[in-house]
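Listing S7. Sequence submitted for prediction.
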Amino acid sequence: MTSDTPSRSGVVIVGSVTADVTTFSQRLPARGETILGDQFTLLLGGKGANQAVSAGLAGARTSFVGCVGDDLFHDLIVDGLSGAGVDLTHLRTVPGPTGIAHIRVDASAQNDIVMVPLANAHLSTEQIDAALAALAPTTSVLLTQLETPAALTLHITTRAREHGMTVVLDPAPAAPLDADVWRNIDIVTPNETEASLLSGIEVTDAASAERAGRWFLEQGVGAAVITMAEKGSCVVTAEGTTFIEPIPVQPVDTTAAGDAYAGYLGAALAEGWSLADATRLASAAGAIAVTRQGASPSLPRRDEVDALLALHA
């Protein structure tokens, strides 16, 4: 699906929000080891919130559905989202702590993450239903991920389809899904690791990415976009496969690259772009994001993305 009228050009993100506690060091510690780091940041994060910020910076009319705690991190979250122009009408404040992500980044820009859901666990079917019903007249694209309670994924995607939205799933962190979920997904956007875990096909190059993409289509997904970092992206549809060339950059921190990609993909689809063109825009956003430290601070503005895309046209 694409945005059928200008009035339905909005994007809604149902997902997680966290306060990101990030440490930077030359290498990651071995098991049981303590090392000295180089830098520390405390910033807005969570895959859902990052994708909302990304879509907002891309220029889309963006709404976020999620839960934040009433603790000292509450204002950090609200300020970060609203600063990107995200509508917070459907962000619910719940008693207790905000979700937390502990991120460790080494000198090669690789990272590992432990995410503790906390307030995110309070997301409910009632909250989702009310939000999607209210947003349906102005929204054509829904983005969601797997950091929300697993039992809600089928509900989120079913309701979005009922409202005629294009459903885009970022299957991270990768986890087995009910077969009915796949049939609700218009576009799935795993990276090579997630595609390998979900499909059972080891993704190492364009050919194996295409095979993994075909597996998703066999499950009922409309299209699969397999992202492979510096190797580019593979777009697999029933009509054929398109390989999107990567944009070469020097990575600094890969933490939110996938979220930058997802937000710009959703924004472009809501504008009525084709999937292949939307993927090229998303690739440029992801390329910029890996050159900057942090999650939400690494997400680029639309003018930056357009300029990079034009440079590599």
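Caption to Listing S7: primary sequence and predicted structure tokens for the chain studied. The chain has ten helices and 13 strands. The two ends are 26 Å apart (CA to CA).
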